[in-house]
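Quick start: what a row looks like.
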Amino acid sequence: MSFSTAYLSLGSNVSPEKNIQFALDQLSKIFGEITSSSTYLTEAVGFKGSDFLNLVVKIYTVLEPVELISELHRIEEMTGRVTGTKAFNDRTLDIDVLLYDEVVNIDLNIPRDEILKYGFVLEPLAELFPEGKHPIEKITFLELWNRLKENLDVSKRI
C-alpha cells in the first residue's frame, strides 16, 4: 500500500475557530499526522461577509483523488455546509484538494486553479511547501508567491 501526499486548503468564516479546529481534528483522525501552515485572516472575496480563517495542511493518504474529495465533502457536511452551491457565500467549512502528488486532472481541478488566483491559497501553500513545484507551471510555490503577491490580496498571518 503506497501513500500519496496531498495538500489541502481549509477555510471558514462561520464560527471559523471552531470549524477549522473540527476539520483539523477530523483530518488527524482519518489521515494520522498532518502538518499545517500558519492560519491567515482574510477578507471575504467575491461577496460581503465575515473574514475567513485560511490555512493549508499536508496529509498522506491511500485514497484516490475522487475518494479523497468525497471524504472532504463529508467532513464539510458535518459542520452544516451545503455543498454544490457555486456562488461565493459564507462557509462553515471549505476543504479543497490543492495538490495530489504530481497529478494533473483538469476534471477534478487538480492542481487547484485557485493556487494561481488567490493569496489566501498560495501564501500558506508557499509557507508550507516553498520548494514544491506547481505541476503545470513548473515553478516553486515560493517563486510563484514572490512573483504574484503584488497582484493578489495579501492575508494577515495570525
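That is the whole record. Residues 4-157 form a domain with the Alpha-Beta Plaits fold (CATH 3.30.70.560). The chain is about 30% helix and 20% strand.
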